[in-house]
Q: What sequence folds into this?
């Protein structure tokens, strides 16, 4: 970091924004294989929170990679930088008082640890959307597993690139065994207490 760049303080603090919103702000991070159900669940949890009047936003892998991170590939270095930028972006959203939901494969434990460190442990909930490669490949929502099998996509998670299961996630939902509604209920139960105003914590 350039030592001539100095942190500036804002007049309005994150806690003042949280109090005005009447809820806490944090990052709800969904990790799992492509096709495991991250986007589906992040979006539906957002709908539930939005309907309760909370300020929310979803950051999603495909969309961020088509914009902010269009220059990055799927090598370990590309993924690391992708996730670092998303964590920094999420940090801004948290500071703005927004409940932020992020759906990214984020396959490596060390990259997920880095995200937690960037946004702060108290602001971070990790949700592991568990599903086997076989189940995700059977769904093949976007036809990417077929392309990976055909060698058209290199470094494809679960086929030709690793996925490390989270060591200590806050929530595990199993999209092979649970319905979408069941998973949403489990997630909502876990995040409810964390969404209270800071003064109520
Ligand atoms: N090689 C390779 N491996 C995995 N995924 C691939 C790849 N190439 C493209 N895609 C598509 O990109 C989406 C994953 O991007 P992410 O930013 O979430 O990946 S990562 O967290 O940096 O690992 C992922 O979206 P999801 O299916 O929603 O997970 C895919 O649609
Ligand atoms: N229990 C479940 N939870 C989440 N998604 C499920 C579940 N059962 C089936 N699905 C389906 O699996 C697919 C998951 O796709 P998506 O949400 O795009 O995954 P990802 O974002 O992890 O790539 C969707 O078509 C969704 O309807």
A:
């Amino acid at each position: 970091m350039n030592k001539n760049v100095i942190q500036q303080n804002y007049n309005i603090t994150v806690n003042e924004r949280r109090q005005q919103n009447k809820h806490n702000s944090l990052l709800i991070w969904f990790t799992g294989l492509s096709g495991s159900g991250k986007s589906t669940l992040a979006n539906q949890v957002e709908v539930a929170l939005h309907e309760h009047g909370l300020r929310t936003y979803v950051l999603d892998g495909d969309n961020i990679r088509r914009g902010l991170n269009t220059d990055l590939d799927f090598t370990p270095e590309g993924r690391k930088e992708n996730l670092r930028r998303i964590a920094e972006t999420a940090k801004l959203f948290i500071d703005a008082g927004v409940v932020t939901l992020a759906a990214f494969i984020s396959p490596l434990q060390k990259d997920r640890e880095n995200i937690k460190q960037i946004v702060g442990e108290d602001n971070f909930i990790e949700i592991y959307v568990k599903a086997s490669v076989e189940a995700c490949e059977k769904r093949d929502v976007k036809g990417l597993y077929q392309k990976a099998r055909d060698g058209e996509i290199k470094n494809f998670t679960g086929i030709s690139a690793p996925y490390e299961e989270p060591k200590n996630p806050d929530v595990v939902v199993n999209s092979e065994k649970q319905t979408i509604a069941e998973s949403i209920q489990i997630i909502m139960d876990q995040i409810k207490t964390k969404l209270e105003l800071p003064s109520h914590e």
The domain at 18-191 is CATH 3.40.50.300 (Rossmann fold). Confidence is low (pLDDT under 50) at residues 197-201.
